């Protein structure tokens, strides 16, 4: 059932961590995974056996029985290797100058065929000459396909194409044919994956209906499908080895949400028993998909006035199978007619009065209840038109049925292209969209029109790297954990969700000065939120009060001038991340420079630390804030196409939203760096004193490690709750970073921490946290950890805190996190004597 051997990275430390994770589990039923007969991973032109970042083993195609005429092909290593592209299977490729067929013996039946492409230069060839077609039996999967052009249009470094094909015979033939139209054309592929699959996407479960036509549609053995989107809505990405044995990759949905009104996401909802209906195989979708969801805000008045929207770019002239996954995971929603909503696809009504509890009842053959996963399939026909069109998925509360809550819910989406009558699945190569895609919401449903920014992404799924680190293990680990003897899976981390996303396109809204004036009531001083280097920040409301925003009004006399204004727009409009503050738009009119952001109701982190009337933040919350901010920075450093150095990391640039989610802000000083850590940008020194990397200050060489230094100072500031520079103190104490590092060295750091935290930090957690902070403020960048490591250590600190709390929790007693006894002497123990849980000790702390 479970395959330990596949996960080479499972080791004792991880075992222990998963064990800890299990002790803080949520209640989910165990899902049985599918066990594929065939599970073939071919690394084309690669080394004999390699393991990818997901722990799956690839074997080379060199000398394999699958190749016939190798003379027509050549193996080659990518001439350049983008550091964000995983080596397996993308480093090596097989290049074909003539038609070439892989013949893979299999058992007849339906298979997932996944093709992996990294459009680099191979064997001295120009990537843009890689134009070819791929066929399997009577199906054309790709035609006149340019991986380079597709990847460029999508801002991806590499691509994975997934098909589902029923194979009658005993051989699966995959044929590559270089284009006959282009004289220098060649074909290539980096990896081929074949996984047998059950027939879960066919018409077996009743007839499918075409949206807007009420006519039936049949998907059977002769239909081939191409998966183009697969999203874990409101949740984290799921890597193939964490799927249900089908090795599908689930992305999160953030990039596809249309507009700033992205509702509320519920992730890993606790205390909810998730129970699949008996008629539904548990491998249809993983529990992680059903245990996270997105719904609307708690305000019914706002909800009736908008739709929760996602936009998917699809190829014209094809039919699409759209599968929506639902599971009501909110404990207050238990009965029918509490949440009822309408579903629109491609501007047509796909479903009116969707009631997830009601549908669960149908599937159970009993009274509906929450915690029951269900799904619904729809077929959408996209007529001919421009090469790609947008398919909108819109959910709107149904008011006709007068449900008790005006709300909607969605847990997952899968979209498949269906082969046309010629057996073709290939569309035209997408073209980079250089225009600024500011568009209006579609006028469907009874929602009012609101102008929103959109994200347009090409129709192929971008490979997402899921690096194996421990983190968001709770849900993922617990339901796969089956007693001591069972195989523990290495669980992927949510914060890698943005890796390899690349920049999304510029999606900034333009405001008129009049709109800004209305929103801020003529820059009413009563709405003033603060004053920064750039100018004053006001609170405002746009879209008729539906959205609260913060408006930063540039001060023409400010030394942070036009350049910073433009940098901020440039940077933020291309980036989107849960832990970066979102720029909604800007106004550049009447010599005014105004930036409009999402409003962060809890303000800056600083104002919760010291010199404040606000209640002190509990330790656990501080840790979560640190992790959030670290994720934001980690994303800047590695998640986008280019490395971005923030340059001004400090507690006033870490903002907190109404749920205390930390968001990194203020990109006015940010710099793009050509590659990762090993190079630097030489630049005029800017930043804030007290946080500034001494190496950068001396050498004027900026690297991501400069941000790590500043972040280390932030960690100490959070721990000690004092200003980073306090000239009123004795000389050796003025600089927090130096003083804290000194105190750590002589073992008295616990004496200078925030008095509110005394006795509330678990000793192991404190050790880990302090050591991380100390390493961040090392004099030389080379001695500092990367944000990746920092994040890992912070995650680990939380785990240590939680496990300390757990171990103090007797049966039936409830010990609050703040009540863990404090044992100061233990901290002074030799830190290195502590057991290594992570196998990272040398390189991390
Ligand atoms: C479809 O294929 C499967 C396996 O190849 C077979 O068992 C099933 O009978 C086929 N269905 C139809 C309708 O031909
Ligand atoms: C093939 O693709 C290239 C690049 O997208 C395009 O310029 C060309 O027109 C296409 N040719 C055909 C026959 O579709
Ligand atoms: C696959 O290719 C082999 C050799 O090229 C051929 O003999 C065989 O008939 C093909 N099988 C199918 C199902 O097309
Ligand atoms: C190569 O394959 C393509 C597409 O399948 C076909 O049109 C072409 O005739 C083939 N060329 C040769 C030389 O077999
Ligand atoms: C898909 O292709 C198969 C085989 O070429 C064909 O029989 C079938 O009708 C096609 N499906 C659709 C929906 O056109
Ligand atoms: C759906 O509505 C959007 C927004 O008004 C519009 O841009 C799009 O063209 C519409 N799509 C179709 C197929 O009518």
UniProtKB/TrEMBL annotation:
It is found in: Cell membrane. It is a single-pass type I membrane protein. It comes from Fagus sylvatica (Beechnut). ATP binds at residue 552. This is non-specific serine/threonine protein kinase. The chain crosses the membrane at residues 454-477. Pfam families: Malectin_like, PK_Tyr_Ser-Thr. GO terms for cellular component: plasma membrane. It catalyses: L-seryl-[protein] + ATP = O-phospho-L-seryl-[protein] + ADP + H(+); L-threonyl-[protein] + ATP = O-phospho-L-threonyl-[protein] + ADP + H(+). Its EC number is 2.7.11.1. Keywords: ATP-binding, Cell membrane, Fertilization, Glycoprotein, Kinase, Membrane, Nucleotide-binding, Serine/threonine-protein kinase, Signal, Transferase, Transmembrane, Transmembrane helix.
């Amino acid at each position: 059932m479970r395959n330990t051997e596949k996960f080479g990275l499972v080791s004792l430390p991880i075992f222990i961590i998963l064990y800890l994770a299990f002790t803080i589990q949520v209640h989910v039923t165990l899902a049985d995974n599918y066990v594929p007969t065939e599970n073939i991973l071919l690394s084309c032109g690669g080394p004999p056996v390699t393991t990818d970042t997901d722990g799956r083993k690839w074997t080379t195609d060199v000398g394999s029985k699958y190749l016939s005429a190798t003379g027509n092909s050549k193996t080659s290593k990518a001439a350049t290797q983008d550091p964000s592209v995983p080596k397996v299977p993308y480093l090596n490729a097989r290049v074909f100058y003539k038609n070439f067929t892989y013949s893979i013996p299999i058992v007849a039946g339906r298979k997932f065929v996944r093709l992996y492409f990294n459009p680099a230069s191979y064997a001295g060839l120009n990537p843009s000459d890689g134009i070819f077609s791929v066929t399997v039996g009577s199906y054309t999967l790709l035609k006149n396909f340019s991986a380079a052009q597709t990847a460029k249009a999508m801002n991806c470094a590499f691509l994975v194409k997934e098909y589902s094909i029923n194979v009658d015979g005993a051989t699966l033939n995959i044929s590559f044919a270089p284009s006959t139209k282009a004289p220098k054309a060649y074909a290539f592929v980096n990896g081929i994956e074949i996984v047998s699959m059950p027939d879960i996407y066919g018409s077996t479960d009743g007839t499918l209906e075409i949206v807007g036509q009420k006519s039936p549609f049949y998907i059977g053995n002769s239909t081939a499908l191409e998966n183009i989107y697969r999203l874990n809505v409101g949740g984290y990405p799921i890597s193939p080895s964490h799927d249900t044995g089908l090795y599908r990759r689930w992305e999160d949905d953030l990039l596809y949400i249309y507009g700033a009104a992205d509702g509320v996401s519920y992730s890993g909802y606790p205390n909810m028993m998730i129970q699949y209906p008996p008629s539904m195989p548990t491998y249809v979708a993983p529990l992680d998909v059903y245990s996270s969801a997105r719904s609307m805000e708690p305000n019914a008045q706002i909800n009736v006035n908008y739709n929760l929207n996602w936009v998917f770019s699809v190829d014209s002239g094809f039919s699409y199978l759209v599968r929506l996954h639902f599971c009501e995971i909110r404990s207050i929603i238990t009965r029918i007619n509490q949440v009822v909503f309408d579903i629109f696809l491609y501007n047509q009504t796909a479903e009116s009065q969707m009631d997830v509890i009601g549908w669960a009842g149908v599937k159970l053959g009993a009274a509906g209840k929450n915690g029951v996963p269900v799904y619904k399939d729809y077929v959408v026909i996209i007529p001919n038109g421009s090469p790609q069109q947008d398919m909108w998925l819109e959910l709107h509360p149904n008011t006709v049925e007068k449900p008790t809550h005006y709300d909607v819910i969605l847990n997952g989406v899968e979209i498949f292209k269906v082969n046309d009558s010629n057996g073709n699945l290939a569309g035209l190569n997408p073209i980079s969209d250089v225009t600024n895609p500011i568009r209006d919401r579609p006028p469907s449903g009874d929602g009012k029109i609101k102008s929103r920014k959109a994200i347009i992404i090409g129709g192929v799924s971008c490979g997402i790297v899921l690096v194996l680190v421990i983190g968001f293990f709770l849900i993922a680990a617990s339901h796969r954990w089956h007693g001591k003897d069972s195989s523990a899976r290495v669980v992927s981390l949510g914060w890698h969700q943005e890796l390899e996303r690349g920049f999304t396109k510029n999606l900034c809204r333009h405001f008129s000065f009049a709109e800004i004036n209305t929103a801020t009531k003529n820059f009413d001083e009563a709405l003033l939120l603060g004053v920064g280097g750039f100018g004053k920040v006001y609170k405002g409301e746009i879209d008729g009060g539906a959205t609260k925003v913060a408006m930063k009004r540039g001060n023409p006399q400010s030394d942070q001038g036009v350049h910073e204004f433009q940098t901020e727009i440039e940077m933020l409009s291309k980036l989107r991340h849960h832990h970066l503050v979102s720029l909604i738009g800007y106004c550049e009119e009447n010599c005014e420079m105004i930036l409009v952001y999402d409003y962060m109701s809890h303000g800056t982190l600083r104002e919760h630390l010291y010199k404040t009337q606000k209640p002190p933040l509990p330790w656990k919350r501080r840790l979560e804030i640190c992790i959030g901010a670290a994720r934001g920075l980690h994303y800047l450093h590695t998640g986008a196409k280019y490395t971005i150095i923030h340059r001004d990391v400090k507690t006033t640039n870490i903002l907190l939203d109404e749920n205390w989610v930390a968001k990194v802000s203020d990109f006015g000083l940010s710099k793009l760096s050509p590659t990762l850590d090993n190079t630097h940008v030489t630049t005029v020194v800017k930043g804030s004193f007290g946080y500034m990397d001494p190496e950068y200050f001396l050498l004027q060489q900026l690297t991501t490690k400069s941000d790590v230094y500043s972040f280390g100072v932030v960690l100490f500031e959070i721990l000690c709750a004092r200003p980073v520079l306090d000239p009123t103190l004795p000389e050796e104490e003025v600089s927090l970073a130096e003083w804290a590092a000194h105190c750590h060295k002589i073992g008295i750091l616990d004496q200078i921490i925030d008095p509110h935290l005394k006795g509330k930090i678990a000793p192991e957690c404190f050790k880990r946290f302090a050591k991380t902070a100390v390493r961040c403020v090392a004099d030389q960048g080379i001695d500092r950890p990367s944000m990746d490591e920092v994040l890992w250590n912070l995650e680990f600190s939380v785990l240590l805190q939680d496990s300390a709390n757990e171990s103090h929790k007797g049966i039936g007693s409830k010990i609050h996190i703040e009540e863990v006894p404090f044992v100061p002497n233990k901290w002074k123990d030799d830190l290195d004597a502590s057991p290594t849980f992570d196998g990272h000790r040398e390189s991390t702390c």
